[in-house]
Write the structure tokens for this entry.
Amino acid sequence: MTVGRLYGRAGAEAFALAGRATQLLDWQKNHRYCGGCGTPTEMKSAEFAMSCPACGLLAFPRITPAVMVVILRGDELLLARSPHFKPGVFSALAGFVEAGETLEQCVIREVREEVGIEITNLRFFRSQSWPFPNSLMVAFLADYAGGTITPDPQEIEAAQWFSRSALPLLPDPVSISRHLIDAACQQI
Ligand SMILES: [Zn+2]
């Protein structure tokens, strides 16, 4: 069953609860031994933490932040598709935050790397827990500041400016990327 169909059948509340449960089970399964000394870990009762009885190392559920951004230029917005999208679907640019990086730096870097353009006026839109397996998606809008679209052939199959009246196929309505694109369309 696709994520969209599951969401449609279960509703937002059950979807969020199932997502939380999935993430916690995945974390427990993958932290059965201490990453520092290899001793079997124990579940702490008062909080979500696996602790090591030998060296005291604590392991908390892993949450992996990722950013996404839709860039506006006049009455157009920039969307791209990666090779693993369904045929014809374009979406926001996205990427994982690297160690030591702020969310803002990550957006600027990802846009440079994936399409070779510069942005300005970065503004937070909203975030969404995305338990596949443990992402926290943080969505932004930004304005175009310069450069020509030059897609990174490793990650981007196609990228282009779209006007609101001629949009391509878009992601499933359950995803924050779709909400972000809808919000962008209301600003152009
Ligand atoms: Zn240990």
